[in-house]
Design a protein that fits this description.
Blueprint lengths: L1 H14 L13 E2 L7 H12 L3 E4 L3 E2 L5 E2 L2 E6 L4 E2 L4 E2 H23 L3 E8 L22 E9 L4 E3 H4 L5 H15 L4 E3 L11 E4 L5 E2 L1
Parallel strand pairs: 6-8, 11-13
Antiparallel strand pairs: 1-3, 2-5, 3-4, 5-7, 8-9, 9-10, 9-12, 11-12
Helix pairs in contact: 3-5
């Protein structure tokens, strides 16, 4: 009975990490948390060693090929980030490193200020690439991607990808390109406004087959 109660509680926790509008509950098959791979457990250990606070989530497989396997929810990476839900552990680890090793140094170099908040546009989303019907499954559908739309500095200034990428402020343009380039050295695929119109307002990072940086 205690094992059943524990499993039910774990599944309820995961429910809060995948938006209701993005779930595909029909024909859903849940994979026990015990199926977590050795690689994922090693990733958990790496996150802990690097001082990242997170919550491990039970594996889930949804209809339409979507899944959240080996996923975590980041709780504290040293810089507050909005809207982070289920994401695979490798993406989570690289994202935390990107924030610590690239975003903060780039902000200090460009503005002499730290970033006090990063505005994410989401992680898990059960949909095809760019939301276009008939396309292959997006890495978001595997909880294997994260999108970032803006950065808020310690002085309250908000740096958005949409307004800043091709804006008039040279420092902003340089900062956004610096963090984009740093992402290319850490993730498999990185897309920004120069990739296509679908990414005009955010930077996309995923651990899919690459490398590809645009």
């Amino acid at each position: 009975m205690s094992r059943l109660v524990s499993l039910l509680l774990a599944l309820l926790l995961l429910g809060g990490c995948i938006p209701k509008s993005e779930r595909r509950p029909e024909k859903e098959a849940r994979v026990p948390a015990a199926a977590t791979s050795r690689e994922t457990l090693q990733c958990h250990a790496n996150l802990t060693r690097e001082g990242v606070k997170f919550r491990a989530l039970p594996d889930q497989v949804f209809a339409g090929g979507c899944s959240a396997l080996g996923a975590v929810q980041l709780l504290d990476i040293g810089t507050p980030v909005t809207n982070l839900k289920a994401m695979t552990c490798p993406v989570a680890r690289q994202f935390a490193r990107w924030v610590r090793e690239a975003v903060q140094p780039a902000a200090d170099a460009a503005f002499g200020r730290s970033v006090v908040r990063i505005e994410s546009m989401g992680t898990y989303s059960c949909r095809p690439v760019n939301g276009q019907a008939g396309k292959r499954l997006s890495e978001h559908g595997r909880a294997n991607a994260v999108d970032v739309g803006a950065f808020v500095l310690a002085d309250g200034r908000r740096i958005s990808v949409l307004q800043g990428w091709n804006g008039e402020d040279e420092k902003v343009r340089r900062f956004l390109r610096d963090v984009h380039g740093a992402g290319c050295r850490r993730f498999g695929i990185v897309l920004g406004p120069d990739a296509n119109a679908f990414h005009r307002d955010h930077l996309h990072f995923d651990m899919g087959r690459g490398p590809y940086c645009r």
